[in-house]
Amino acid sequence: MTSLSTLQSLVQSTVLAKIGPHRDILVAYSGGVDSTVLLHALMILQRQHMPDLHLQAIYIHHGISQHADSWAKHCEQQCLDWQIPYVVEKVTLELEQGNIEEQAREARYLAMQQYLTPNRLLCTAQHQDDQSETFFLALKRGSGPTGLSAMPALLHLDSHSLLRPLLTITRQQIEQYAYSYNLVWVEDESNQDSHYDRNFLRLHVLPVLNQRWPHFNQMVSRSAELCHEQQQLLDELLAADFSALIDADRCLSFKPLLSASQIKRNALLRMWFKLHKSSMPSRKQLEVIWQTVALAKEDSNPEFRLNGRQIRRYQNRLYLLPQYQDIQSVQLTWDLKTSLVLPDGLGQLSVTTSGNNCCRLPLANEQVSVRFHAQGSWHIAGRTGSRQIKKLWQEYDIAPWMRTRIPLIFYNEMLITAVGVFVSVQGQGNQVSYRHKHD
C-alpha cells in the first residue's frame, strides 16, 4: 500500500511536471475534493519550490443548488487561509431547456475566459475516474476516435490553454491525499443524482467494472490515449489533402471529394468542421449534408442547419456560416450625420468623402434609407442598359445568402448604391462614399 508521504509526493510531483514553465495559473475551484486537492497541491508547490508562481482561484456560481452561496463562502475562506486571490462569477442557466450538464460546462468556461490571457493557464481538476466516465459517455453517443480520446491533459484554445494535471491520478488517491492533509471540502448533493448520465456511470456502472477488473479505469485511459494518437495520425496523413481543399476564407472545395471514398470524404469533412470550431455532425448528418448540399442541383440554393449554423454551397465550395436573421424587410432611415448601426451584427455604415464607388449627395427632397432587398431592373454606372438585380448579384459574384445582407442605399425609392459593390446611374457622382465597417 502506498504510504501517505509517497502519495503526497506523487500528487505534487505530477502537478509540478504538468504545469511545466507556466507561472500564472487560474484554478477552477468548486470547493469539492478534487479542486481542493489541486489548489492545495499548487499552494504547496508555490510555498516550497516556486515562489514566482502566481495563483488565482475562481468559483463559478451556477445558482442551481440552495447551498451555492455557502459553497462560495467556504471557497473564499479557504483561499483566505491559503493566501490565494479568489473571485466569484455568477452564471445563469436555462433550467427548463436542453442538457443542464452541457449548459453548465459551457457557462463555466465562458465566465472564466474573461480572467484568462495568452500567458495564463487554466487548471481544472478532472482525474482518471472522470476520464473513464467521459470515455463511456462518448461510447453512448457512438463517437469515433476523436470522441473516444476523451479529455486531453492539455488543450489549446483560442488565446489560452487548459490543463488537467490530475488526469493520471485516481479518485481514491485524491481522497487519500485530502485526508492526509486534513483538508475540508464541500459535497455537492447533485453528485448523488443518477438522473445525470455521468453520475449514473459513477454510481452504478463503473464501480461494478472496477470491482471485477481493479485496473479498469487505467486501461480505459490508455484506450483513450490510443484513440487520440490514432486521430492525430489520421490528421497528419490527411493534412496535405485537406490544405489543398481550403481557401483563404476557410471554404471547402468539394469537387475533389467526388472521387474519394466515403470514409476519406467524411474524415476531410470532419476536419473542416473542426477548423471552424463547430459542433461535430453525426455520420448520418454528414451524409445528408453531402447529398442535399454538395450534390444538390447546380441551379439550387441548398442549405443545411446544424446547431445554430448553416452549411451552404456556392461555386463548388461549401461554406459554414452563422444562422443569419431574415432582415429583408428592414428599412432604416439615415440622416448621414452619424454612423448607422446595422442589424444582425452587420456593423456600421459611415460617410466619407473619399474611397471607391463614390456617389452624389441626396437632394433636399430625397430621403436616405438603408435596405437589404431590392427588386426590378437597375442601370449600373459604367454599363449599358439595365439588368435584373438577380443578374447583377451573379455578375458581381455575390453568394446568394449575402444578397440580402449587403446594405443598399436608397434616395426615396431610387437605388443609389449597393455599398462596396456598385453604384447606379442615378447615384453616380463624386461627392460622397459610403463605408461599411463590419463587426
UniProtKB/TrEMBL annotation:
GO molecular function: ATP binding; tRNA(Ile)-lysidine synthase activity
Localization per Swiss-Prot or TrEMBL: Cytoplasm
Catalytic activity: cytidine(34) in tRNA(Ile2) + L-lysine + ATP = lysidine(34) in tRNA(Ile2) + AMP + diphosphate + H(+)
Keyword annotations: ATP-binding, Cytoplasm, Ligase, Nucleotide-binding, tRNA processing
CDD domains hit by this protein: TilS_N
EC number(s) on file: 6.3.4.19
SMART domains membership: TilS_C (SM00977)
Positions of ATP binding: 30-35
Domain Lysidine-tRNA(Ile) synthetase C-terminal: 368-434
Pfam families: ATP_bind_3, TilS, TilS_C
GO CC term, one of those recorded: cytoplasm
Keyword Ligase set for record: yes
Main subcellular location of this protein, as a coarse class: cytoplasm
Top-level taxon in the UniProt lineage: Bacteria
Family under the similarity heading: Belongs to the tRNA(Ile)-lysidine synthase family.
Name this polypeptide is given: tRNA(Ile)-lysidine synthase
Species, as recorded: Orbus hercynius
Phylogenetic classification of the source organism: Bacteria, Pseudomonadati, Pseudomonadota, Gammaproteobacteria, Orbales
Gene symbol of the encoding locus: tilS
